[in-house]
């Protein structure tokens, strides 16, 4: 009976994982944010901590999975419809290096040491800060680097109706310039833009 309960709990946990992946997208297989990683860790902890515990019945385990499932979906919905929640939960890209100069305040803000930054740059074959035009820490912990002399990477100017100030700084533009460019394309409401990219002096918009 014990082994039957273990097998059934494991099966329920496996089905819960498949259900969440299919309802929330394949992004959970390669988490792009801290919250995506945490939800996977929590599910692993729930399944691992419950399947060998005979004191937790199958109905109780199913209730735990339902609560976890509702929390995941609720948080995902809030992140999608509320930019403040998304920024609070996942954070935002942080500009660490600009034109060969390290932003020490930003480094301390993300709790990144000089050794950590140097190590991450060396992994990309970069051995001096002076060669770095821009270095941005993404939400998943990766550092994206643009070297001096390279073209600006095609970072989005607007995602999900939100203007990306870091990208504007990278191309030496401001928000007023962006709004004027959008108006020239007949776009008045930024919130209606799904994605806007800057490429070779042009703004490519997907509403």
From TrEMBL:
Give me the segments passing through the membrane: 58-78
Q: What are the annotated GO cellular component locations?
A: plasma membrane
Q: Which InterPro entries match?
A: DUF421, UPF0702_alpha/beta_dom_sf, YetF_N
What positions does the domain YetF-like N-terminal transmembrane occupy? Answer: 3-78
Q: How does it sit in the membrane?
A: Multi-pass membrane protein
- Mainly resides where? membrane
The subcellular localization recorded is:
Cell membrane
Lineage top rank: taxon:
Bacteria
* Residue stretches making up the YetF C-terminal domain: 80-199
Residues spanning the signal sequence: none
Keywords, in A-Z order:
Cell membrane, Membrane, Transmembrane, Transmembrane helix
Under Pfam families, the record lists: DUF421, YetF_N
Which protein family is it in?
Answer: Belongs to the UPF0702 family.
Entry's PANTHER family? Answer: UPF0702 TRANSMEMBRANE PROTEIN YCAP
Q: What is this protein called?
A: DUF421 domain-containing protein
The species this protein was found in? Simonsiella muelleri ATCC 29453
């Amino acid at each position: 009976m014990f082994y039957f309960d273990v097998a059934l709990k494991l099966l329920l946990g496996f089905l819960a994982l498949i259900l969440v992946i299919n309802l929330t997208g394949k992004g959970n297989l390669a988490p792009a944010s801290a919250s995506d990683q945490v939800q996977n860790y929590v599910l692993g902890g729930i399944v691992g901590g419950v399947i060998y515990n005979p004191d937790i019945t199958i109905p109780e385990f199913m209730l735990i999975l339902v609560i976890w499932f509702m929390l995941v979906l609720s948080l995902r919905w809030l992140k999608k419809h509320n930019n403040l929640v998304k920024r609070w939960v996942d954070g935002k890209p942080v500009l660490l290096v600009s034109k060969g100069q390290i932003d020490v305040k930003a480094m301390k803000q993300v709790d990144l040491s000089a050794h950590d930054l140097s190590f991450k740059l060396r992994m990309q074959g970069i051995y001096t800060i002076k060669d770095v035009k821009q270095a941005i820490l993404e939400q998943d912990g990766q550092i994206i680097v643009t070297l001096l002399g390279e073209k600006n990477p095609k970072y989005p100017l607007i995602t999900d109706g939100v203007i990306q100030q870091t990208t504007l700084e990278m191309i030496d533009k401001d928000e007023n310039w962006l709004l004027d460019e959008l108006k020239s394309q007949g776009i008045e409401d930024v919130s209606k833009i799904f994605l806007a990219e800057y490429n070779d002096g042009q703004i490519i918009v997907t509403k």
